[in-house]
Amino acid sequence: MGFLIDLACFLLVPVICWRLVRGAVPMAVLPILTGLAVAIAADRFGFDKSVLGPSKWGETIGWFGVLILAFSAGLETRITANPGPRPGGRVVTTALVGVALPFAVGFVVILSGAMNMVLAQPAGVSSLLSASAIGLCLAVSALPVLVGIVRELPMEDRPLGNLSLRIAALDDAILWIGLAALLFLHKGEADSLFAGGLPQAGAIAVFAAMIAVRRRFVDRLPDHMLISGALGIAYLAAGAWATSMLGLHELLGAYFTGMLAPRQLAERLHPEALGKLALFGLSPLFFAHRGLSIDGAVVTAEALGAALALLLLAGLSKVAAVHIAPPAADMQMTERTRLGLLLQCKGLMEIVAATILVQAGLITPTVFAVLVTLALISTTLTVPLFRSVSRARAMQRKPAG
């Protein structure tokens, strides 16, 4: 019975709401918003939120779904990151500056103590690591959500949208590498990577094997759904196991495994469809449960103010980064702004990153609530802001009179 209640509240309700608003609010936002609303209501009205979830089966299904979602995001980079010629030096520079500038702004603001009333660091955690964790969340661009947004853009905006995907793919790779580094430093395992015996050696061997065989045998296998599906499951399971053996989060393994998968396998697994299955049918339970796990008492006016302040800093920094280091020297100022607005979308990637960080103890539950709120607002505002600037550009292009 508990599982059915869990499904009804945190899977069916978000999907129904998404249909009612006709997709105006991204599906990435609604599950965690549902869970957060229940958590706040439980605190304000004094009822036991555990009667609604999470159930054991619901948590398992949600966890499996978010692993598939991370895996599909990695697969997307194999397809979208190289749709034609390889990204040039300027595109790579845009991606690097687009991560570095928001990260630096967030790092300095948090380290200065300007928001310590709300964003205090966890006990026993270095202030440098805590500030780095928040800065990394401010720097992320949401590749999976951007894929959906770009597919809904008018045809004349598709080239700019595809460019944003190439940059976001690089940003995502930097995010996951940064997360891995933070977890190693936090757990004190950076100097003992090879001191864990056979399991850690086996984990490293798994990733080495994936790199070695990525172009060797997949193209020789029959293009059959069952074969491709079995190979995809094997890749996902091996990557999740390997990162867990290295003391990292399984989601890191799921994402990196997708990135390391042979391009032919990525195409056969259809990451767009795979991502939609996870997004609508499985992972809503995971994200709703994360929202439900937030203490409703920490969602205060101060926390909302901090989220809005960080959103403003992160968004302006991302747009400024594109203006400072555009992917093309002759790109017009309005086009740089529109590209920056697409890239400031946080989506699921920030929520996943914040979930990993709070579970590792690098950020507090209050900071997690602030970052989730920031991600929700950022994702919801991306399309309206992009359309607003696009309309202003169209008006300027009309001949006078």
Topology readout:
Blueprint: H1 2-20, H2 30-45, H3 56-80, H4 89-111, H5 127-139, H6 143-151, H7 158-187, H8 198-213, H9 225-245, H10 250-260, H11 263-269, H12 271-293, H13 301-324, H14 333-343, H15 347-360, H16 365-397
Show unreliable segments: 81-87, 189-195
Share of helix among residues? Answer: over 70%
Using only CA atoms, what is the Rg?
Answer: 21 Å
Tally of separate domains: 1
**Which overall shape is indicated by the principal axes computed on the Cα atoms?**
globular
Q: Architecture, according to CATH? A: Up-down Bundle
CATH class call:
Mainly Alpha
Largest sheet: none
Helix tally equals 16
And the CATH topology? Na+/H+ antiporter like fold
Distance between the first and last residues' Cα: 66 Å
Number of strands: 0
- What's the rounded overall pLDDT mean? 83
**Beta content:** under 5%
Descriptive overview:
The longest helix has 33 residues. The chain is mainly alpha-helical. Helix 4 packs across helix 5. Helix content is 74%, strand content 0%. The protein has a single domain, classed as Na+/H+ antiporter like fold, CATH 1.20.1530. It is globular, with a radius of gyration of 21 Å.
Index terms:
mainly alpha, 401 residues, Na+/H+ antiporter like fold, 16 helices, 74% helix, single chain
